[in-house]
Structures are given as C-alpha cells and as structure tokens.
Specification:
The complex is a heterodimer. By secondary structure, chain A is of the alpha/beta class. Chain A contains eight helices and 15 strands. In chain A, the strands form three sheets. Chain A has a six-stranded mixed beta sheet with strand order 1-2-5-3-6-7, sandwiched between helices. A six-stranded mixed beta sheet of chain A has the order 10-9-8-13-11-12. In chain A, a hairpin with a 2-residue loop joins β14 and β15. In chain B, strands 1-2 form a two-stranded antiparallel sheet. Chain B starts with a strand and ends with a helix. In chain B, about 65% of the residues are buried. Classes of the chains: A alpha/beta, B mainly alpha.
C-alpha cells in the first residue's frame, strides 16, 4: 500500500525534531534541562512556594500537551513518543526542575500506560523527598458509562487551565488538587472521526474507515470509536453530541458554560465554525449562557479528520480560573 | 548446558530483530482494536534493551536490570513499565550469576509473568498479554518441555480472540474487539518462542 504523505525526515525522529523546532521558536518562555531532552519547563511559571503542575502524555496531539506549558498554566511537561505515554524519567525530571517546594501535581489523560509510568514517577519522586499527587482527566463521555474508566481528551485544556490558574494564584496543593478534580467532573467531551490518522513510523492508516462513514465517540489516538455510522450533516452530528452531553451535564437554565469546538487535525476552521453555530443555537435553546469559547485545533490526533465538542459546566469558582491570564507557547489569554 | 551473560545478550539481539520484523504486522493488529502503535513500542523497546546491554560487564541480573532500564526509557507506553518490571523480576529470579543451567530459563518466564502482573494488575481472561504469559509461566513452573510452554502461550493468545477486553484501551470498544487477538498477547508469544528456542537449543 502507498505510504501516506508526510513532511518528515525520519519516522523515529519526529518527536525530537518537533521539540527542537518548538524550543527554537519559544526560547523566551520554554527551556529544557540539558540532561532531560523530553522534559520541557516554563521559564516564568515555576517559583518558590507554588505548586508545580506537570502535564504529559504521548506526542501527536499538539498543541496538547506541550503547547499549554507557560506562566498561568502548566509548569512543565513530560513528552512521550507518538501516542505513547512518556516513561517515568522525563516526568521526574520535569517535576524536579519545576518544583517550588509546595508539592507537585501530575495531570494527564486516563490511559493505562500513562497511569503506570506516572505512578512510577511518583514513587521515584517520593524517594527524592518530593510530594507528588495525580489527577486524571476523564472528559470523554462516549468512552465508558463508568466515569473512572473514561479517557481524557480535548477537555484537558479547560481542566488543566483551571488547575494551572489555581496554582498560579499560589493556592496550596490540597486546593489545587480539589479544583482539578472539580474541573474534571464538570467537563464533557464527545467527538467524531471522518478519517483515520497515520503514524509517522508506519505511514499507514491506523484503521480503515470507508468513504461515507464516520466513527462516533473515537479517542484521540486513532482508536476506533464505540460505534460506526453513515456520515451525517454538521447539524445532525452536533445535535447527537449535544444531546448526549446536555443529558449527562443536567445543568439548570441560566447556567454558564465554556465551549471548545476542536479539530482532530485535518478538519478546517470553516467546518468548526459551522459546528459552533449549531452548538450556540442548541445551548441557547437549553437556556445555557456561553461564558467563553475556543474554536480550533487544541487536541489533535495527527492528521485525522474529525472534530470534538467540549462543554465545561462553569460555576463561580471556575469562572475566574478559566478567565485567568496565561502565556503558553500555543495558548495565550489575558 | 549453561546459559551465560553472552547468551542472554544474544537473546535480546534476537528479540530486537524479531520485533523489527513483526513491527508493521503488530501495528496493523493494534490498529483494529487499539491505537496502532504496539509494534513500534516493542521494536524500539527491544532495540534499546539490546543496545543498552551489549557492552555491559556484569552478571545475568545486571544484564536484565540494564535491559529493563533501556526498554522503559525508550518507550514508556504500556509495554515499557510492564516489560521493564518483568525484566527486573527476571534478574532477581536468576540472581547475580555469570551463567546458569539453560533449564533455569523457565524461572525467567515465570518471573516476567509475575512482574507484568504486579505492574499491570491484569488477570487472565481480560484480553491482555497476560493471557499468553500466564499459561506459559504455569507450564514452565510445572516443568513442561519448551515446546509445551510455547504451545500454552499460543493457546492463550488464540483464546483472546473471542474475549471482551476489560482492561486497557481496548476495554472501551465493547463487543467490537471480539474476533481479534490481543496484540500484546501476540508479541508475548513471539518473546516466549525466542526464550523456549534458547531452552531447547
């Protein structure tokens, strides 16, 4: 089979070459410890007395995760291979480099590999005398009826943002952890894939999706969805997603929400705004008020076509945290 | 007949070559029920393990420990912590010897199973690599021949086909995984095959 076309040099070098490029652009806000090529740290975020927020996961989801490292959001990131959890060492390196003496909070999507590697990192930090805790993100409501088994997907950006703002406001680790769990519990995502992605090492589609069909509820690693169906219109897709999210969210009229309409990589902004138009109509019908919105590629799956919609059910505690300024390589606010 | 540190180094070189050959097939299998990268992780992990130990001067346990570190740091993923823990347990099981009887490779199979199970908390029947490692380890512990140990692993892998997954990424796919072998159990059979070939050699 013909190889998918990518602008790369060598399949196994993609992550390190990408990091070299990112560091070359953003040397004013990001740095890497010389001994830790897969740990990237915010220059202006970490400081004495502040909880260090360390995020991480596989590559191929940019701007998730590395794009959210900066003052006001994450202090550091452990960077894995494409779609693969980082090993424990870069997570330890990032945590030690960003440590301000007030504890370390690891946040990442709920995947078996990430949990094993970050748990090993926590054990290693304990031996260094550094307290580390973990909050997993589980916003993908299509991935399981059991919340503890759900995956973390595009809603990460809101959840990390709330926790990062709390840490930036110098809240103690108990509070930062509580807010992280609170933000995760109120964030709901569901998506559809219109085409497979392909890994740079294999350059073959990760799964086969025939023309005219879409995957409903797929993950962000090209995992097949929970259901496959015929491709439908933007409004029909939005309605199915919103029906599912609103039912589970069960918010009273007048509640405020943050919205993310996210591209999985290949779907253009034109289509995202078409989806957003319908999201806004549906939220208005439901009597919900949109407080803020993000539209664009925030959590991608390499070159996959498709989109996800995230709704975060805000409250008086989350609103100032979502509005809090941040200055990251791929996400700025305020 | 003894199995020396140099034999162990050669075993890792063969495992690396085997995973390199099977990479795309394992990725294709993983694409059906997972995220399509299992072959890449196994290739990179075994290559890093083999590279890490070639110039090492030490005991069988030292070689296993270095292989564990090499594998883990190269891949992360799920297979990194699982095989790294398995190799550490294998090192502990064989101890700081420079050589051992070939038959002691059955201890290695049992210890790798124990390490994987300790780290991943999987039980047999959940459609994971344990479905190959567990029956192989049980056969090895019961004194079965190398051929029977491998046959037990293969039967275990085949048995994953009709299973629902209850652990790991595939667990979110419900009934769609039925009919497909677990990719982790397929690569496990390959590793067990290389070890049992060494036992029989």
């Amino acid at each position: 089979m013909a190889l998918t076309q990518k602008l790369i040099n060598e399949g196994n070098a993609t992550v390190d070459e990408m990091l070299d490029g990112i560091l070359a652009v953003h040397s004013d806000t990001l740095w890497r410890p010389s001994h830790a090529p897969r740990a990237v740290i915010a220059k202006h975020g970490p400081r004495s007395g502040k909880v260090a927020l360390i995020i991480g996961g596989g590559s191929g989801h940019e701007p998730t995760f590395i794009g959210f490292v900066g003052k006001g959001l994450a202090d550091g990131v452990a960077v894995g291979n494409v779609f693969a959890s980082p090993p424990p060492q870069p997570a330890v390196d990032a945590a030690l480099a960003a440590n301000g003496g007030a504890g370390v909070l690891f946040m990442y999507g709920n995947y078996a590999g990430d949990v094993m590697n970050f748990d090993m990192a926590m054990d290693m930090l304990e031996m260094e005398g550094v307290e580390a805790r973990t909050v997993l993100t589980t916003d993908d409501i299509a991935s399981s009826p059991d919340i503890s088994k759900r995956r973390g997907v595009a809603g990460n950006v809101f959840i990390f943002k709330a926790a990062g703002a709390a840490a930036d406001l110098m809240m103690p680790i108990d509070e930062v952890e509580r807010i992280a769990r609170h933000a995760n519990a109120r964030t709901y995502t569901m998506g559809v894939a219109l085409s497979s992605c392909s890994l740079p090492q294999t350059r073959q589609p990760s799964f086969d999706l025939p023309a005219g069909e879409m995957e409903i509820g797929m993950g962000i690693h090209g995992e097949p969805g929970v259901r496959r169906g015929p491709l439908r219109t933007a409004n029909e897709v939005t309605d199915e997603i919103l029906d599912t999210i609103l039912k589970e969210m069960n918010a009273p009229k007048g509640a405020r929400v943050a919205v993310l309409v996210n591209s999985l990589g290949a779907t253009p902004l034109m289509e995202l705004y078409i989806l957003y138009k319908r999201v806004a109509e549906r939220l208005a019908e439901a009597g919900l008020e949109i407080h803020s919105s993000l539209v664009g590629p925030y959590c991608t799956s390499l070159d996959m076509a498709g989109a996800s919609i995230t709704i975060m059910h805000l409250d008086d505690e989350l609103i100032p945290l979502i509005d809090h300024p941040c200055d990251c390589a791929m996400f700025r606010q305020g | 007949m003894d199995f020396s540190t140099s034999d162990l180094k050669h075993l890792f070189v063969r495992l690396a070559a085997r995973m390199s050959t099977e990479r795309d097939a394992l990725c294709a299998l993983d694409g059906v029920i997972g995220d399509g990268d299992h072959g890449i992780a196994m290739e990179q992990g075994m290559k890093a393990a083999a590279d890490q130990i070639q110039s090492l001067d030490g005991s069988l346990q030292d070689v296993f420990n270095a292989a564990a570190k090499g594998f883990l740091n190269a891949v992360g993923a799920s297979s990194g912590p699982l095989y790294a823990t398995g190799f550490l347990r294998a090192g502990k099981a064989v101890g700081p010897r420079l050589a051992m009887p070939k038959d002691d490779l059955r201890l290695v199979i049992v210890a790798i199973r124990d390490g994987i199970q300790h780290r991943g908390k999987a039980e047999p029947g959940q459609k994971t690599m344990i479905d190959a490692w567990h029956p192989a380890a049980e056969a090895a512990a019961a004194g079965a021949t190398p051929t029977s140990i491998l046959a037990a692993a293969k039967d275990g892998m085949e048995a994953t086909k009709p299973m629902l997954a209850t652990l790991g990424r595939a667990s979110r796919l419900g009934e769609r995984v039925i009919g497909h072998a677990d990719p982790g159990s397929v690569s496990a059979v390959m590793i067990i095959e290389e070890i049992t070939l060494e036992m029989a050699h």
